[in-house]
Amino acid sequence: MKTISSQWIIGLALMLCMAPLCSARDAIPVEAQVDQFFDQYISTYNRRFGNPGGDAAFRAEIVEYLNIPLLQAPPNRSPMMVESAERVGRNFAGFVAQLEQKGVERLQWQEKRLKVLSPTQVLASNVGHGVDADGNTVYETVSIYLVYKIEGRWKIISLSPYQVQNKVALIK
Description:
The chain is of the alpha+beta class. The protein is built from four helices and six strands, in the order αααββαββββ.
């Protein structure tokens, strides 16, 4: 009779313990996954505010939330397909610099309106506030995002900021 090694038993136990973790994450409703994704996305901005020396780290981190190429549709210019992570990172770093000039020290979501289109596709219309050191809102932004699950990770594939007074109410 063969004996089973303790390493084999430990390996089997680890696999059995980790299986529920993998399936539990996949069992989280799509809307909750994307809600968490947007919280992590905005936290990336908040780590950058007040830390201009962290600009390179911010650029590298923010592109992890974005699909490259990224379709950006600014409100006052023609839409553009940004095809390099470097360019996308510069665009987002420039946005942070503009917000800092307005006195923004952190961003927070005022509203996240999510419409699940499929298990791998979500449309979002989110309202964000830029808040100063005293907690006053000094900037408000509204954007539409198209978010896809690509290779197991949520990514923004398209975003379009638009005028606050035209907030879009997504139908649940």
